Amino acid sequence: MVPISEKIYADEKVWAMEFRRWPMPSPYAEYPFLLFKNAVDPAACREALEGLKECEAVRAALRGKEGVDAQIRDTLLHALTPKLASLYGEAVDARREEIERFFGVALAGASRPQVLEYREGGRYARHADDSSELYDKAGNLAGYRLSAPERKITTLMFLNTAGEDFEGGELLFNHLRDETGGVVTLRPEAGTLLVFPSHPLFAHEVRPVTRGRRFAVAQWHDAMR
Which of 64, 77, 185, 188 has CA 20 to 30 A from 209's CA? Predict the structure, then answer.
């Protein structure tokens, strides 16, 4: 394993692949991502969810493709309500300077925030936010091809809580390992803001939801050195 922060390591095979590894925080940071718990009051998050309209939800596709295999991605997109836009926007703006300092970047433009829902059985297989996966003839991961260069930093705010509002739905960083060698896994908590680089070292997946409905807001940011 290759150390990338005080407590987190990268898978050696993936580390050896050629792809853009910028931005990255200092290797002396405790973790290579930022996790702001209670960035928004959890009760406010749940209250804001009541404004979502079921009729406006549409099935999400894969970037650059019209259709999608539900075994790869089974996600619904909701229209961003003014209340959710305000909660999420204020949470990110209040921490913008800390995010920039931590990753050594100046945030530039950003995508429109997306409201994501995973219902029972919903999932999103391993993927990198800025790249497409490449496979060898045996079907093994061989590398990554940059496909969304404007994505440098990913921000993700969880709107409800695993174990209370739903079961399953954990977020796994597939190529990252903890001190025991286990895959880095996060359980969503309402009001928590997660910030991480969009490149393949931070490829991730959403495990299937087994009960209830999992909600989050996601956005991708461009950045400069």
Answer: 64
The 3-class SS string of 37-104 reads: CCCCCHHHHHHHHCCCCHHHCEECCCCCCCCCCCCCEECEEECCCHHHHHHHHHHHHHCHHHHHHHHC
- Calculate Rg over the CA atoms of the chain: 17
Domain count for the chain: 1
Give 50's Cβ-side CA count (13 Å radius).
4
Domain that holds residue 35: 2-23+30-224
Which regions of the chain are under pLDDT 70? 62-67
3-state secondary structure of 210: strand
Residue that is written with structure tokens 């999400």 in the block: 60
pTM: 0.95
- Return the structure tokens found at 205: 């997946």
The answer to whether the CB of 148 falls within 8 A of the CB of 219 is no
- Confidence at residue 67, expressed as pLDDT on a 0 to 100 scale: 61
pLDDT at 57: 86
- Of the candidates 60, 108, 77, 105, which has an alpha carbon nearest to the alpha carbon of residue 197? 105
**DSSP secondary structure code for residue 164 in this structure:** T
- CATH code of the domain in which 176 resides: 2.60.120.620
Rounded to whole angstroms, how far apart are CA atoms 48 and 57? 16
Could you check whether the bond before residue 113 is cis, i.e. omega within 30 degrees of 0? no
Decide: 212 and 166 in contact? Cβ < 8 Å: yes
The Cβ-side half-sphere exposure at 159, using a 13 Å CA radius, reads 25
